[in-house]
Amino acid sequence: GYRIFRFTFLLPSLMPGVILPMLFSFMLDSSMGVLTPLLRAIGLGDLVPVNGWLGTYETAQTMIIVYMFWSGCGTSIMLMSGNINRLPAEVFESARLDGVNIFQELWHLVIPMILPLFSIMIISGVNTILGIYKVYFSFPCRTGITCCITDIYRIAKIISFYKCSVAYCLL
């Protein structure tokens, strides 16, 4: 069970970025895909959209969000499971002898021990999200509203005040 779960979420990290969207759209295909027959086989055929998973704006937008989550969580799951497997067994054994249940073990032992990795993963995730939207924010806004990337560009290139633009990047 858990090996299939790991493989399913680690697969996007192992595949090239060109093949991954094609694989995902193939999985969502109404005639040949895997998702529609799977949902129908387990009795959830009513969830399948009439126009297909990518047929309307609403379902396509939802599937893009699912795709972004699926393509980005493999490395995080691998890092978390590796970090949890390396936690000292003596601590958990001592906690069980003291009568700690599974939820207390998770809340008071596991989460505090993996918090440094979790904070690094949050910083990396925010960096990835900003990297995805950097292209959209790299151009001057037509509405007159500027964003941080255009401000940095304006400060560095137009005003030629490089020290200020570097400091602004670090913020």
What are the defining features of this structure?
171 residues, mainly alpha, flat
Major sheet characteristics? none
Q: Uncertain segments of ≥5 residues (pLDDT<50)?
A: 135-145
For the terminal residues, how far apart are their CA atoms? 44 Å
Order of helices and strands: HHHHHHHH
- The SS-based structural class is mainly alpha
What is the number of strand segments? 0
Structure annotation, total helices? 8
Binned strand content: under 5%
Write down the oligomeric state: single chain
Description:
There is one protein chain. The chain is mainly α. Helices cover 73% and strands 0% of the residues.
Task: Describe the secondary-structure layout.
Blueprint: H1 2-14, H2 19-28, H3 35-41, H4 57-85, H5 89-97, H6 102-137, H7 148-158, H8 162-170
Helix pairs in contact: 1-4, 4-6, 7-8
What is shown here, in short?
The chain has helices at residues 2-14, 19-28, 35-41, 57-85, 89-97, 102-137, 148-158, 162-170.
